[in-house]
Write a structure and sequence with these properties.
single chain; 150 residues; mainly alpha; 7 helices; 0% strand
Amino acid sequence: MRRKFAGALLAATLACASASAQTRAPGWHQLDQAEQAILSPLAADWDSFDAERRRKWLDLAARYPSMTVEEQSRMRARMSYWGSLTPQERIEARERYKRLQAMPADQRETLRRQWEAYEGLSPEERSRLGAAQRPGSKAPGAAAAAPVRK
């Protein structure tokens, strides 16, 4: 009886370990060469990402070959930008994204138009506008760093 119980316990433990290994995302050195090449801007931080974030990046890497050259270029630029952020800046970026997604569509559209108008300014006009801003007076959802354009 004890042997059957021990055997069942061992089988259950192995099943749980196997299921856990399948839901865990691989470390950087476990990625294949193609995945490493696509995700290279994230290499330095990969092993610090949680399993869910790794799986999301891997899903994106799987779609990469079917993207247009322009989409691939935009994705690599965004990965490089993301990789350059500190952990705190990443948290802030995620929070800004959540706030933007919670905004009504018309407010998001207005904000998009304002950003496009800002991008159309000359560097001198941008400097003047920036100098006129008081610290801490950013609009909700405003980017702390220059976002990568589509």
